[in-house]
Write a structure and sequence with these properties.
globular, alpha+beta, 2 domains, two-stranded antiparallel ribbon
Length: 92
């Protein structure tokens, strides 16, 4: 088991860390480009009706919510579980 942890810390960890440093700025700039829920509702009123949100790409109604930085972070993204399209952002 110690050999696995050694390998992880020596090789895998730094690769993920470097990858995260490249992805994070793109993701943050993309976050601010996403519409808020109110903007999404104003742009696509037929997709937000009776408390139900639909995906603009595939029409799916199962929407996920994930934290931008962590599971308990204030900034959230909401997307379609069917096609994976990120639809809008929110802040709690």
């Amino acid at each position: 088991m110690n050999a696995v942890l050694y390998f992880w810390n020596l090789y895998v960890g730094p690769v993920f860390s470097k990858l995260a440093s490249y992805i994070s700025p793109w993701f943050i700039s993309s976050y601010s480009a996403l519409p808020t829920f109110d903007e999404y509702q104003a742009m696509y009123p037929r997709l937000v009706q009776r408390g139900r949100v639909e995906c603009l790409t595939c029409g799916g109604t199962r929407i996920f919510m994930r934290g931008l930085y962590s599971a308990i972070g204030a900034e959230k993204i909401h997307g379609c579980t069917t096609c994976g399209k990120v639809l809008y952002r929110s802040k709690s």
